[in-house]
Every structure is written in C-alpha cells, then in structure tokens.
Protein 1
Amino acid sequence: MDPQNAQSSLDDIRRLQDKTRDAIVRQMFPLPYVVVSALGIFAGFAAIDLPRPWSIAGTLLGFGLYAGIGIVYAHWASVRRKATSEEVGIYVALTVGLLLVFAVTRIVAFFVFGVPAHGLPSQATVAGAASAVTYVAIIPLARRIMKRIVVQDGRRG
C-alpha cells in the first residue's frame, strides 16, 4: 500500500468515527424514552404513600418502567459504545439529584399540605411530580454534558 492510499484510509476511518460519535450523541435521551422514564419516576415516587401492598407494587412498577426503558433503549440503539467513568458519573449524579429533589419537595409538601386529607395530594405525589418534571427539564443539560464527553473521548482516542 502506498502512503497516499494509507493516508486516504486513515482519513476515511476518522470521518466514519466522527459520524459514529454524531449518531451516538443524536441518540442520547430521545424524547419518547424521556417521557416514559418521567412517568416511571412519577409512578415510583407517588406510590410510596399508598397502603402497604400497593406501595410496593407501585414503586416496583414505576422504577421498573424507569429502568426497563433504559434497557430497551440500550438494546435498540443502532450505535453502541462502552460507557466511560464520566458518563457513569453523570448517570449517578442525575439519580442522586432526583432523589434529593424528591426528598426536599416531600418535606416542603408536608409543611404546605400537612397530613394528606381527603381531596389533597399526598406529599409523595407532589414530590414525585416535581421529580419527574425536574428530570424532563434537566435532560437537555445532561445531553449537552454527554455530548461534550463523547467528543472529548473521541479526541483522546
């Protein structure tokens, strides 16, 4: 192989790697999956205040939906890559942030609504709704951060 063909092949490889990275970034947090994940977050958190057998079932169903949609997304994605430690850190920070929003909102809802009475929402329902809305609102920021990580990872590689 002459040097010109070798350089042309290397240029093709770089171009295809860039296309792959663009496809990875485009696929991150697609809107339908985000909406279904938010519904799972809401159902999982809102079910906490239900009576005993229903709270367990609702929480498992809600968080199962949240985790399941992630598994389905990973399975159906046309382009895959191994997650870096920075990406895992973003996912962990997102989860911890949602738990923090839930806890703070539930405490605030307790002081605003008091003990749930007939016709008033429970604290977990209010906090679950706030957590789901926060999740949807923070996804564009998470997507930008993940894009930066993928592009930097491509420059390092």
Note: Residues 1 and 80 are 31 Å apart (CA to CA).
Protein 2
Amino acid sequence: MKRKADPRILIGTYGVVLALVALIAFGWWRYENFLGLFNVMSVLRYNSMFALVALGMCFVIMTGGIDLSVGSTAALGSVAAALASPYGILQGAAAGVGIGLLVGILNGTLVTRLNIMPFIATLATMLAASGSALLMANNQSVSVSYESGFTNLGQGNLWIFPVPAVIAAVAYLFGSLILNFTSTGRTVLAIGGNEEASRLMGLRTDRIKFLTYTASGGLAGLAGVILAAQFGAGQPIEGVGWELFAIASVVVGGTLLTGGVGSVGTTLAGVLLLGILFNVLNFENGMGWISLSAYWQSVIRGAFLLVVVIIQARLMTRRSQAA
C-alpha cells in the first residue's frame, strides 16, 4: 500500500516555495526594476550572510537543539577577520571562520559532554562571544584592509554573481548532499526524531550533535567574514537578532522546532522569502505609501516565527489525534 505523504513535509516543501513565488510575482507586478539586475544581486549579496547562519541553524534544529549564539559569533568573526585582513584574504577568512569554529566546539562540548541544555549552553556562549567581540574591537568598529583584497569576499563579483552569494550557494549544495545522501544526514534526522532510540541503535548521537554545533559556529564565523568584507569593517555590535532571523527562516522552511523533520532547500527558500519581503517593504517606503523604520523588520520576523510555530503546533496535534 502506498504510504500517505506527511502533511508537515508537504507544507514545508511546497508552502514556502509557493509563497516565495507569489511574493516575487507581486514585486514584479507592482514595482519598476524589482527584477532588475541591480536589485536582484543586491538582495542576494546582502542575504547571503543570513543564509549561511540559517544553514547551520537548520542542522542544529533538526537534531532537536537550538543555537542562540550565531549572531554574536558572526559579530566576533567579523572583528577577527577585520583584524587579520591586512595579512591577506585567506588569513582574514581563516581568522573569522576559525573563531566561529571555536565557539561551535565550545557549544558542542557543553551540550554533549556536560549535558547542558542547548538553550542555556548557547545563551552563555552568546553572551561570551558578544563581550569578546567588544573587547577585541575596543568597543568600536574595526576597519579592514583594502590593499590586501579582503573586501572582494563581500563586494566582489564572480561574473555577474556576488561572491557572497556564490559562497552561500556552495555551502547549501554541500549541506544538501550531506543531509540527503550520507549517513550523517540520516543520523541528524534520527536524533531529532528520537535521540534515545538512536543511541540504543548504536548511532553516534553525541558525535553528530557535536559536529552540528561546530558547523553552525563555523558558518556563523564565515557570515562574519562576509559582513566585515561587505561593509569594510568588523562590527562588534552587529548580529543582534540574527539568531531570530535564522530560526524564522528555518521554521518557515518547514523544519520542526522539535527536530526530526527538515530540509536544506526550503530553509534557503525561507531566507529568500524573508529577505525579499523586507525588500518589498523598502520599495513601498520609496513609493511613499507607507513609512516603516528598520525596527519593523524585527516585528515582522517575530510575527512570521509566531505564525509558523502555531501552524506547526496544530499540525502536530492533528497528527497525534489521527495516530
């Protein structure tokens, strides 16, 4: 007998994609140059940072965990990258990613070795990373070196495509391959579905969880590298609310906050949906019909997250009643 498709997966796969297509169609119909090359590439360039953070968050949430430190880690990574940028592109990138990996390793150790709840563990590292960024930067922005070519990582193009967007695309391709075609990906979903059962089956649950937190930290550090290169300075107070954007993108993309169900592709669609929504609001501001400050972005992110969590909760309740 053919197995009935899980409605949670169907909504996550098709709902966010249809919403994304509808939003793009609306923007194309309403605004001149909405699909112009400059606007499209600007959206891709800016949102690549959030895409990288959301990718790491996706894997963490699929295990049933959470990483609240990604925004502070990105800010810390941007400062480290800016300080190392005079030594070259690779050195600057390595500094940002390396410090992100260190935060991720710390998170993984706290969660898997000391059995601290992910919420508490990553909250602690969020505060530590934020303070470390301010200390390293002496409570001010740190200018990058323009002579070393470091800014090409954020401001350069590969043909017509922004370098940050290319980096994010490669990361998502790699993440999709891991999730869908490796035992590591299957273990990630198994842990989120039932960690104790996965452990009894002999799966290396602690090792995989450790790797997911480490990867999340590294991707946040890479986002910080792009942040510094794109804006020409390490930003110690940047990254506030990035964890909310990442969580919202992951959940809007259909990944359950309880773990066990998720998709890399729909996470990217969630990032683009939120990014283009803010772009639409900017166009509306330009037309003079509405006047919304940047602070409304946080309100919208929170509203998106709340609505999707409510929908997920209702789906889970119906599924439990039908079982």
Note: The chain has a mean pLDDT of 89.
